[in-house]
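Ticket #4471: structure output looks truncated?

Reporter: J.K.
Steps to reproduce: submitted the chain below (528 residues) through the standard prediction queue, then opened the result file.
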Amino acid sequence: MAKGERVPHTPAGKLFKPPEPAFNKPPHQTVLDQRLSFCSKLCFAIGGAPNQVAGSATAFFLQIYLLDVAQINPFQASMVLFIGKAWGAMTDPVVGFFITKSKWTRIGRLMPWMLGCTPFVVVSYFYLWFVPPFTNGRFIWYLGFYCLYQTLITCFHVPYSALTMFLSTDQKERDSATAYRMTLEVLGTLVGAAIQGQIVASAHTLKHCPHHNMSTGHLGNGSGAEIVKRIVHSQDFLSHAKEVYMIAAGVIGGVFLICTVVMFLGVKERDDPYISKTEKQIPFHKGFILVMRHSPYLSLTAAFLFISVAIQLVQSNFVLFCTYAVDLRDHFQNIVLTILVSAVVSIPLWQWFLERFGKKTAAFCGITWIMPFTVMLVFIPNLVVAYVVAVSSGLSVAASLLLPWSMLPDVVDDFRLANPHCKGFEAIFYSFYVFFTKFAAGISLGVSTLCLEFAGYDTGACRQPAQVAYTLKLLIGAAPVAFIVTGLLILLLYPISEDVRLRNKLCLEELRKQGSISSRTLEDVSNA
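Returned output as attached by the reporter:
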């Protein structure tokens, strides 16, 4: 919007008719300026991939790494996962606050954040997968580096998420860019799982204890020489596991650096075209109160909070489930890849579906798909069923990734119309959305790992008690289904239908036209 012009306060979703100007409108320059090239969309999408590459590796493998390679006890592992996630959640609104206070630079307001934190993200990520030579302080080591990593990745992810609103003012272009982003992010998740899974798969086989469980309770099953031989072989195997995890971390760190550079070279950040540049920003706390009172934002965030917790439970416990509950330890990396390949392939399907039938309908159809199949794997644990479940689950994973990030810009547009005086609030929407979902995921991860502790999980053992297998089945089957059902019930309250979304689009287009006219008028006056 042009400098000095104020928009009349209009409730979101209600179309107003602006007064007709007494001079000619500028032609289609504004609309054309908001079109995004294929290269811009692709580079924007590539920028989001490294976060998912690293996130996929930590989601699938950090829990089993802490338990079986770093060999800290389940309670300490649960504290690392919970406190780390909770810390990351708390840093989201803090980073969002500082972003709202950031000055506009030659490369934008958000891009400096992403470029500045990337080298430090890579270093902290590498040391998260490094086993220190000391034993007593390992809990502090992993807790410290996980919290540091969560802080730095927040400094990257919050501005990257908010960047969607500064690519274009056209909803269709933003939705298209979001589809590109989700496709590349799911592909990044696939790459992360592939890199991590294929490199570290040898660290989670039975080769180091083929005949006996190496837990302390079973050391008496052979002669003294056999016991010593097994212990030495187990230590050699543990050294191998540490090495392959560090190799995987180094490869993923390199991917992070390359993708960030590509995004910087190919994406242009645009300033906010709706808001007066001379108008003073509202204080952060007032903006936060306004955002938290916006009902579409609350219903969308609460719904996908529960849905993301369900997906997080499946991700974090899936490798443990395949290893100790259903005897698929030799196939888990390929099953994970099947899930993610299915998700990558189905992203265009869900993009077409949401354009044809609406975003809310797409959310219900896509996310409910996972429920019967996860339960099926729990009750019919064989290899063929596992691959069928993997393909079907990939469809829901794709929908759960695409839909919230496609719907959130619609919520921001709705807020613009309801609060036209606000400026620079986009980071509040995105940072607190990530805050709530991260915090809930942290609680669920901590509780699920504590459940393994109570079930009698034996760190470093090749086989686990029956209670552990039963607990893993609950964490993969019943718990995610309950969270998904709760989330979908809340999503029923989401008020932005396709009709409301289209009305908001028309209103914002009128505002943009008025802003272009006013800007041109002010330039003519100043020239005269």
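Triage note (M.O.): checked the attachment and the full token line is present. The mean pLDDT is 78.
Status: closed, working as intended.
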